[in-house]
Amino acid sequence: MEMASTCSIDRILLDLESILNSSRDRYVHYDVRVAIKRMKFLKTFLMCARKWCQSNDLYLESDNVVEKVSLPSFLSRIEDTFHKYEEDIHSLSLRSEPDKNDYSIVNRVVFLEIEKQIKLPKQEIIQIYFALASSWSLQSNSCMTDDELMEFIDLILQNLADLTNGDMVICKFIERSISAALSAQFQGLEAKLTFLKSFISFAKMRGTADIPALLLVHFEVVALNVARLSYMCSYLDDAEEMHNPEFFSMIYELQQKIRAVDFHVYDTYMEVLRASYCSASLHTPRMQDKQILRNFNDSLISCLWELLCYSSSFMDSMKDEMHILYAGLRFLRSILREQQEKMDEQNKKIGALLSEAGIIICSPPLNRVKEGEVSFSESTQVLDFCDMLANTNINLKHVKDQISGSSTIESLPNFSHSLRAPKVSQTSHLMLSKGQMPIAHEVMVGLDDEAAKVIERLIWGPEQVEIVPIVGMAGLGKTTLAKKVYNDNSIIYNFHIRLWCTVSQAYNMKNVLLQILCSDGKHSWMDDEFQNLDEHALLEKLYKKLKENRYLVVFDDVWDIKVWNELRISFPDDKKGSRIIFTSRYSNVASQVEYGEKPHYLRPLSDKESFELLQKKVFGKEDCSQALHGLGMEIAEKCRGLPLALVVVAGVLATIEHDIWVWKEFAKSLTSTMVSGTDQCKKSLELSYEHLPCHLKACLLYFAAFQEDEKIGAKNLMRLWIAEGFVEKIEGERSEDIAEEYLMDLIGRNLVMVSENRSTGGVRTCYIHDLIFEFCKAEAKEKNFLQVLQGYDELSYFNEPPFLHRLSICSSGEDFVKSKLFCPHLDTLLLCNATPGYNKFHLRNMSFLFCIYKQLKVLNLEGINLMLKELPAEVEALLCLRYIALAAWNMALIPPSIAKLSHLETFCLYSHWMVSLPDSIWNMKKLRHIRVSRGCFIPFSSNDHVVENFSTLPNLDTLSNLYLCFDQEVENISRRIPNVRRLKIFDCGEKNRVCCSMSRLECLESLTWRGDYLSGLRKHVELSFPMNLKKLCLSHVGLPCREMSLIEQLPNLEVLKLRVQSMEGRKWELMEGGLPKLRVLTLEYVAIVEWIETDPDSDDYFPCLQQLELDGISYLEMMPACLGRISTLETINVSFCGDGVKSLVREIEEAQKYNGNENLKIIYGKY
């Protein structure tokens, strides 16, 4: 009988999959998933071991004892074991749905017992794998046919995938950094097996009927060794191996010894490729031939990419030729993707080229260099190899020209010339004067009647959930109208919950769900509450949030009804009059909505409204002069009521001379078809773009590097502009200030829109309209300014054009790594996060980045989670780097070698740990911004008390978040960062002291200070703030209320945020004349009871206050009477406060109305 057939295993696997797919019980899911994974590894073993059953017995060695094992008997024992459980599993799989969810203890015992039985023969299986590999390597004939070998390889590849996909127990029980290192090894093994599989298929397709026995035996040994390693790693949850560092070292060493094409079989391997290359006639062409060619080509690209990553030992001429070969193979990849004429003939040519490339890429000289055994210049085969490589590249170029036509496609890169990108042309620093600055605030014209109609439909009407679609062409103002409605007081009053999301053309469902859940400001995407939830759990969370509430949810920029069909189950209909708004360019989207009523079609502006909008955007509150009135009307009419076209044209008019002749010439240059309609509106964008100075053109095109509708942090954007060299350096001015002028200029020209303002003034986040985004993306590509790649297809088929300056990848990190991009001449590499939250791809090894992209000035990898505890010292290779931003949740240490990056200006690290920065960082004189999310610690030298020994960072502008002991280190830090403007610090000093002496920091404008105060009276208070301070945020400081005058005396303070435990005491008595410029005051979870003025009749308190925020104020009984008289007060936000505070706020509101302020907004949050 056939020993140990896998039939029983297959049947059990099918039944387990059935149980897994039909049950919702989380215990079932866990136990069954583990059982399935274990069974798959066992199936792989049985598949290869049964081939050996027909041969000899095995001798297994354990603890120096050799034992003879009958493999047929061993396999029969395994088969008999699983026969016992097959019926139990099958009966469980046939149960009805309710029964499956009733997961009794008895049923769980079945799965646990199966797992136990799978584990029992673990050591014997490991030893058998080793014995089979050792015995097989001595054989002259293989035990498997090539088809059986490929089946065996497929099973191992599935096992490796199970180890790295996050489901396997390895990821749950071993330390993240160890798991990351192992995953990198698994990926290497996967690449080697994939190469073997693709080679066998390629050789057979090219006419090799039988793979030579020597080569096939080697391939079998490689597969056995990989199977053994993967099987061993599947049991890393065993305690003895989890905590054994030698085990992990052994895994690494074994992986390194496994070569897809070992040196002793290379000649045979080369003979197979040469035979296929010289083969005059091939088999009859088949449909799968192109896929076989594609797979082998992909494997060769992967192998060559590995060589290029470690090519420092190669001569320059050799590197250039290898890069040409790499570009040629990527070109063949793009050709093999498409259906071409005369494909059979082309396949023969491509196959011949791949044979040549395969001989070169797997040659022992190259691979010995890669493994560090010898430098290429020492090799005796250098000249022959160089000739072979050059000839292959010539043949490849010849075939390329034949396939694509040399006149219609660029020739392969020529590395005899420099591939440096030309610098963006600079113009003299000509900024608009303050009087000429265009109007930056949002202006709405002609929307009042539209908004009234939509609001009426939302507030009144049926009690059932209803969808109100707002439909209109691009640029007509759909989003602006939706925002106006969303923020209307009557809407705020009538709906318990208001939520917003922007969908866009290419959307990610989890991204959409997180947007909705977080749009009320109560949560962040990074909250642990959301991070580990999948889409199903997020849908359920949204349902619970909306249940029993009257809600309004806006879906902005909907392109496809599919997004609603996937989300609709989360929107309960409790007959409370809930509403949903869609904005879309397409009527057919609105017509497909089940709960939808008649769409609200947004009309174009009338000629009169068009001129009104144009006038307000160009002149602000002033009127257009009579001389220009007629020309203004003419220009407005040509925009045909399209708001986007009007504001873009206004952006140009605001920057040219207000002269009749100039406006007349501009009016002549416009045609009605140029500025109306989606396509024609792009023409008006071109016009506006051409009117930009060169430095602003670069800044605008840079928006293409981000994602559509992304809200971009303004400060981060400006730092990128500075690092790119777009911002002109002017003696005596900070680059950040000049960059801010650039941004405000673009906003004033109506090309960039403000999403959120900062409390201190200025822009927090900004974005650009969809049409402007598409324009920037196309223009950036055409000008070779920036290339944007999205998705695996674009990444894998991309060939670096000459002079490519910047590359932005909006894709998953996994696709980025798999694509094997090699663009060593890049100045900028940006990886946008396409998968929000914890879905980020975990990059286990980043050494290739330092090997390939040595000329980078800007490196942004925030879209990838680097699974490293320490930043690799190889970062020192990026000598030109000015900007680096990384996400590495486990990183806690930065090496001293980072100081070799002498040009570095911005260092951003998102880690979940406090990070230790080296003291060598004090020597990085060009550093301008240091931001570490969870906090950082910088050691001070023992001789730091000697002033002459101080190393300073004279250009540092931002430092966040620094841990230090105020009592001992505040003087040191003040001397080292004399010009810092923004500082976030964590004080870990003495508990009974509050000490902050920072008057030395004369440039400091924003200070966030978090102490470690919990309770009790501070015995010593020593405060000294710089007089230039504009923003101060305190928490856990425990500052006695009687000392608040030290803060109130600050003459330039505009924003004061007193958060949890920032104050100690019950009574805060305001100092008369204090805080003369304060605009924003936040009290958050402070325990004061009495908040009063020294003189209640005086008006010399908060003369500039605009916004008051009260959050979690539970004990407050008295508030200053002056709050009812302050004429500048615009809003009071109240959240999580009791009825007492609510009553006090109502008194303030009444007093404000009495004093003539009818526009005060009171916004109530949760209680």
Structural features, described:
The chain is of the alpha/beta class and 1167 residues long. Helix content is 44%, strand content 14%. The chain has an 18-stranded parallel beta sheet that branches. A 5-stranded parallel beta sheet has the order 4-5-6-3-7. A 3-stranded antiparallel beta sheet has the order 8-10-9. It is globular and about 105 Å long.
Helix proportion range: 40-55%
Low-confidence stretches: 167-174, 406-441, 672-678
Largest sheet: 18 strands, parallel
How much β-strand is present in the residues? 5-15%
Structural class: alpha/beta
Taken from the alpha-carbon principal axes, the silhouette is: globular
Overall mean pLDDT score? Answer: 81
Q: How many beta-strand elements?
A: 34
